[in-house]
Predict the 3D structure of the following.
Amino acid sequence: MKIGIVCYPTYGGSGIVATELGLNLAKKGHEIHFISYALPARLNKFQPNVFFHDVEMPHYPLFEFHLYTLALVGKIIDVAKYEKIDILHVHYAIPHAISGYLASQILEKEHKVKLVTTLHGTDITLIGLEPSFHPIVKFSLEHSDKITAVSGYLKEKTIQHFDTGKEIEVIPNFVDTKVYKRIDYPELRKNIAPDKEKILIHVSNFRKVKRVCDVVKIFAEVIAYVPSKLLLVGDGPESSAAEKLAKELGISQHVNFLGKQTSLIELLSVSDIFLLPSQSESFGLSALEAMSCGVPVIGSNIGGIPEVVEHNESGYVAELGDINRMAKYILELLNKPKKWESFSQAARKRAVELFNIDLIVPKYENLYRELLEP
Ligand code: GMT
């Protein structure tokens, strides 16, 4: 099949899912055309059957604001027409779904394209609820040929807020468990934790919803009992607040701000606990990648997190903002090596058995095929 994939190119989970999906489909022989305003973060090396189309932004003094939605429509039309795309798969509804719809309508007489919209989270639970966006999201969902959501939670939220009457298929996010696996990196572990401290890790885009300051507060409670180090991977609006807090709490020498990193597998492999105390999370892809590397997850009991992390098996979930409880859960695992080992194995097993790329990508392939059936 010839598939166009529209996504955000940044480090966000929706862009990562879209990119990994496209790369895997390309390996299976499909022709994949990524369409975005920059090269997606994980599309950093040559692969056969993979093409990238840059959305160029026209500048004109009259336009005080960028007209990205329209520039994207133009690029989709161009790519769909000349590359003969069968399926246009847009990730994150705003504005991709409405751009996809407009492009397919404009093209209708010349070339038919089926539109698949995958919902990722705040496109439904936050931004999509803005009064000016709500009718557009609702319309674009009603006019998508297929809608998918990355968790049961997100499906329910979509029905609740948008009531389109259309079927929504849950296709969970996935991880390549052959790539994301725990490997020994003794040198790296020694560099980070020279006195055999435990290692806690958090990976995100440091937006407010990720509650990075909670991560620092939880760590402050843990380090009071167990010598540990905290790795903060990623960058975003909350970085400086988290840094300031670590200084105020007198623990900054044990907190490593690593910024955006590409070698996640190494860092996850040397980590003992992954922290995700978010206040909004439709799935929690970073938690799944950690689990695949055998890292138990401590997170909040919200959104799709409990669908990924099985409480008391592969990690623990606690009420949002319950720093005390999350710290207690971490200490429980750090102080009991046998328990940690069984959680680590359960986390890996869950990733392999439920969320492995080889199980999930065929679900998208089947969905595309069904849409193309005459
Ligand atoms: O929804 C967002 O704000 C952004 C989006 C992203 O691009 O990172 O994150 C969402 O999609 C991820 C991939 O499906 C999920 O793992 C995240 O849980 C989800 N974020 C939220 O729901 C806040």
Remarks:
- The chain is about 45% helix and 15% strand.
